[in-house]
Design brief:
The structure holds two protein chains of two kinds. By secondary structure, chain A is mainly alpha-helical. Chain A has 15 helices and eight strands. In chain B, α1 crosses α11, α7 packs antiparallel against α11 and α10 packs antiparallel against α11. Classes of the chains: A mainly alpha, B mainly alpha. The interface between A and B is large, with 71 and 68 residues.
Chain lengths: ~450, ~350
């Protein structure tokens, strides 16, 4: 294989593996803030127990997220040096800002979140939890800014620097708020909330099925299902906004998502089907006019097809189609599952419906798969460009790195990540089987109930 | 030396990497010393001594890398693609070290803990060594072609001088870590650490002496600026006094001051390194005219200005809460059920 293919496989592998963890950190961060906030508000120790248990799971995902995250920062330089030279002026700033504003905040307050339970007051601890969650969201902000700039570059100009062309910033705020930042950020963050919430839902449903830790499981389900329902509904809204953005800013990408070869008015939406790449058409169940309406709020609107660009400038259509449709299908499935779970939980019959509990147990996979598919669609759909319309992917490669060297690192990454994943699953399972600690129901030391509650009322 | 934006960023990147050395240096040092004690409780105490802070310390490296990418993209691109295998190895070392800290305590089995103990220790030593070798190569100079690309080989990076700097870095971090460990431990382990710290100090002083001699003899361009501006010798003097002060404070049992002296040693070493590099970021050897400097490798001054604002807002906040967090976790390690 050539160095381009190998480098693309390696970047794809390392980013896909890495991206199993940040959504968990972001989503569980929100879960932890809710649980600890509820504990401070209601003084119900079961919320304290929940916060303690999920903190341990958070620590596990965070460690792997950090370890695999540094890889990403290095890989821009190791494998994509020409890209780094070209975009460093724009893209590097976002990465540096992520370090200063997000990673320091996250990792600094993580110390208090994990080890500060007996060292600081409840309020300081809650503040630290909020800061960790905020840091996780900030990191999403800056990395999405960087990636969105690659999708819809803005606020820059291309100039000659020492005999080489490169992009330089002209307007920082246009770079930050480039045309796709906001909708892609909101869509990504909702996906992360779903990821955290469905993990909580899954583990809690498992406890209900096994009739263990019932009070803990019910309270966790309440928090988990609420966040899952809100986030999955918001996900549909932000997903729609994001797709409309793609229709406007990256029409060829949208055409690939829908397998639309010819530019046409009254374009149909494929609900389920596949792309016949040789005959250049989509086979499947279609709703007439719907794509035009969803993309431009008008049944008669013209939707740009793949024929608007030369065949060499088109992304792989079948793959994009499948990634995109898979993501959308899973998104709606998540709404249905969260809504059903929430409904039956509210009327108190969830524990009797064992089939639904089993569905909830496996629902943890859905947001993870949808996150992956969504990113595959976004990144593969941008091809053959590395910076949309500005720089093609092969041009971004490191000039001096040889194929056999990349093959070596790719094999090593594959082995090490496989091991890491196995250990992660083993430890996560162990944590879940062990369950919450009973002693967390009676917080001690600085965490003990505030005096005014335990003190006898004055007569 | 006029203080333009490029020079300011040269200093700021240096500050970030110096911060990394001072902070993550002791984490790596604790890791390098990890296998010296066979006792599980003692190993746990040492890991928990860095437990709450190691992760934040590593962010200095991540941010330093990000700042290098943003301020000097050509240096970032040339060095990272040129030192490909070395950086991939560094990544694996950092990965193993990070997950070993988290995974080790999660199971009680002996084989489990030993596996992660080795991962933690080997990861720490290899990280320190590779960082040193990279620094040594930058000091020695690396072959750069007319397009600003690295023109050497992986094996070419393993010359004696960079390897010497690598070993010196391991020694420096081990000493730093041992002294940090002294501040965080008490009783028998503290006494044991005193023995290690003593040996580490000797190890480092020998390495530092050899490095200094080798630099003056074989890498004359790394002393040029100080040679031409004798008043800068005050920094070299401060460096030697800082090193000499470490065993003195150690002898008197003032662990905290010994640690500060160790920090001052790093600061002055980095200052000397930076002064003699300036304005080069990557010195090209054998074709000095191809060197990457703070001007030909920099981002636009607009970006450097924006980044300065970002740093101006961010860094004071970071320092403020980092100090708070170190304050919260001050004192000797006390194990509880949340400990590693």
């Amino acid at each position: 294989m050539d160095v381009l293919t190998l480098s693309r496989i390696q970047f794809g592998l390392t980013i896909a593996f890495h991206y199993l963890y940040p959504p968990l950190s972001i989503g569980l961060g929100v879960v932890l803030v809710c649980m600890e906030g509820l504990w401070l508000k209601t003084k119900n120790p079961v919320y304290h127990q929940m916060a303690r248990f999920w903190t341990k799971v958070f620590a596990l995902t965070f460690a792997i997220g950090v370890a695999t995250g540094i890889v990403m920062e290095f890989e821009f330089g190791t494998n994509w040096a020409a890209y780094s030279r070209f975009v460093g002026d724009v893209f590097g700033s976002a990465l540096a800002a992520e370090g200063i504003f997000a990673f320091f905040l996250e990792s600094g307050f993580l110390a208090v979140l994990l080890f500060g339970w007996d060292k600081v007051s409840r309020k300081v601890h809650f503040f630290s939890t909020c800061m960790v969650a905020l840091g996780a969201h900030f990191s999403a902000v800056w990395i999405i800014v960087a990636n969105s700039w690659m999708q819809t570059p803005a606020g820059y100009h291309v100039v000659m620097h020492d005999g080489v062309m490169r992009a330089e910033v002209t307007d920082f705020w246009q770079v930050v708020f480039n045309p796709s930042t906001l909708e892609r950020l909101s869509h990504t963050v909702c996906g992360a909330w779903c990821t955290g919430a469905f993990l909580v839902v899954s583990v809690s449903a498992w406890y209900l099925l096994k009739r263990k830790h019932l009070e803990f499981a019910r309270a966790s389900l309440k928090v988990g299902l609420s966040i899952a329902l809100i986030a999955s509904l918001l996900q549909a809204v932000t997903g729609h906004a994001s797709a409309q953005g793609v229709a406007k800013n990256q029409p060829v990408k949208l055409a690939a998502f829908e397998g639309l070869y010819n530019t046409e008015s009254n374009a149909p939406l494929t609900v389920i089907g596949w792309v016949d790449e040789t005959d250049q058409k989509v086979i499947g169940l279609q709703i007439p006019d719907m794509l035009s309406f969803l993309a431009f709020n008008n049944f008669h609107a013209q939707v740009t097809g793949l024929d608007s660009v030369a065949p060499d400038d088109r992304p792989p259509v079948e793959a994009c189609f499948m990634f995109f449709h898979g993501m959308v299908a899973i998104g709606f499935t998540m709404i249905a599952i969260a809504a059903l779970g929430f409904l039956y939980f509210r009327n108190g019959t969830l524990h009797e419906r064992r089939w639904l509990l089993w569905v909830l147990v496996f629902s943890v996979l859905l947001p993870q798969i949808a996150n992956q598919l969504g990113w595959f669609a976004a990144e593969v759909g941008r091809q053959p460009w590395i910076v949309y319309g500005v720089m093609k992917t092969p041009e971004g490669l490191s000039k001096i790195v040889q194929a056999n060297v990349v093959l070596t690192s790719l094999i090593l990454f594959t082995i090490i990540y496989f091991l890491l994943f196995a250990v992660f699953i083993y430890l996560l399972n162990d944590k879940i089987q062990h369950g919450p600690d009973e002693q967390d129901l009676t917080p001690s030391g600085k965490l003990a109930l505030p005096n005014e509650l335990t003190r006898q009322p004055k007569s | 030396m006029n203080l333009d934006l490029n020079s300011i960023w040269f200093i700021l990147v240096g500050v970030l990497f110096t911060g990394y050395a001072m902070l993550d240096g002791f984490d790596l040092g604790i890791g390098a010393l990890h296998l010296f004690t066979k006792d599980d409780t003692e190993r746990r105490i040492l890991i928990n001594a860095i437990g709450p802070v190691w992760d934040g310390n590593e962010v200095w490296l991540v941010t330093g890398g990000g700042a290098l990418f943003a301020a000097f993209p050509d240096v970032y691109a040339t060095v990272f693609s040129g030192f490909y295998l070395a950086f991939i190895l560094l990544l694996f070392a950092l990965i193993f070290r990070a997950v070993a800290i988290e995974f080790r305590s999660k199971q009680p089995m002996r084989w489990w803990r030993q596996m992660w103990d080795i991962g933690f220790s080997a990861g720490s030593i290899v990280s320190a060594l590779l960082i040193g070798v990279a620094m040594g190569n930058i000091a020695w100079g690396v072959p750069i072609d007319a397009n600003g690309e690295f023109a050497g080989t992986f094996l070419g990076l393993l010359k004696p001088y960079p390897l010497l700097i690598g070993v010196t870095t391991v020694a420096l971090f081990m000493m730093h870590g041992a002294i940090y460990g002294l501040m965080k431990t008490e009783g028998a382990l503290h006494d044991k650490l005193r023995g290690w710290a003593m040996n580490c100090i000797i190890f480092f002083v020998i390495c530092a002496a050899i490095t200094t001699m080798a630099t003056l003899l074989y890498v004359p361009h790394m002393a040029e600026r100080v040679r031409e501006n004798p008043w800068l010798f005050s920094i070299a003097l401060a460096n030697m006094l800082a090193i000499a002060n470490i065993p003195r404070e150690f002898y008197h049992g003032r662990d905290w001051k010994a640690f500060l002296s160790s920090c001052a040693t790093m600061l002055t070493l980095m200052a000397l390194f930076g002064l003699d590099q300036y304005p080069n970021l990557v010195f090209s050897q054998p074709n000095p005219e191809n060197s990457l400097t703070i001007y030909n490798a920099a981002s636009s001054s607009k970006t450097l200005g924006i980044m300065l604002i970002i740093a101006g807002i961010g860094v004071p906040i970071v320092i403020a809460y980092t100090v708070c967090i170190y304050w919260i976790f001050r004192g000797k390690v006390k194990m509880d059920r949340m400990s590693y």
